[in-house]
Amino acid sequence: MLIKKPSDIPPSEITPEAVYLNRRSFMLGAAGLMLSGETLAALAARKSPLSTSEPLNSLKDITSYNNYYEFGTDKADPAANAGRLKTRPWSVLVDGDVAKPRRFGIEELLKFPQEERIYRLRCVEGWSMVIPWIGFPLASLLKQVEPTGKAKYVAFETLQRPAEMPGQQRRVLDWPYREGLRLDEALHPLTILAVGLYGNPLPNQNGAPIRLVVPWKYGFKSIKSIVRIRLTEQQPLTSWNLAAPDEYGFYSNVNPAVDHPRWSQASERRIGEFFKRKTLPFNGYAEQVAGLYRGMDLRRDF
Hints:
Blueprint: H1 17-30, E1 46-47, H2 59-64, H3 77-81, E2 91-96, E3 102-105, H4 106-109, E4 115-122, E5 127-137, H5 138-145, E6 153-158, E7 178-182, H6 183-186, E8 192-197, E9 200-201, E10 211-213, E11 226-232, H7 239-243, E12 267-270, E13 277-278, H8 286-289
Parallel strand pairs: 1-4, 2-11, 5-12
Antiparallel strand pairs: 2-3, 4-5, 5-8, 6-7, 6-11, 8-9, 8-10, 12-13
């Protein structure tokens, strides 16, 4: 299967600059409705060579078609219900097998050098988008707490606040939502903590105020509204693996050769397009990340 490099994408598939700027202008008018009354401020971010040149999905697509079960199980529920979430004050505790455990306030996290990372997102359900995230490498944060020699994995935890996250009032999953990565995955340059999209702060329904983005894995691995990051020696428990271990593995790398038990993963529907397209190994990032899994059986370690 052909894996496209940015240089292989024809000019006809690249979003014109004027269209991108118009979308960013639209964000200024729309995002304020989604940020719990916070003052809207554009995020300064430099361009990244790690971005794809594929056409972006619209702001409407990205903010109205979401999986975020803390706010409901329908795709429209997060946009309808996330407005009650208060994202200030906010902090993230980073602890576990580290030399310098520390709690970072969101204001500190926003001071990390930010980049625009335009990434493909592939949902395990068989749909995909292209999203212009704003964020910084997770490695930058982890280096500040100095992982010890015992640290082999990184565990993540979402906020648990049922009064503001009505989906948590139902036992759809074992709350709070939990995810995990191997330490080498967490330190990979493609792995980021996102604080914005389309040049402005994250809307609540997209994981405000800070979320993980791991573009070569299925979307549920990119945990939202993070309040704790813990480095561990043992592989951490993860929410969907606990709920359905035969369907959702710890690694959950995008793999068109390994089907979900209930549907094929060989193709995907890009939101906004009519025809399906072939799914690429590691969501098109195989050149950068396949080496992390050299020697592994990706059918067994799915």
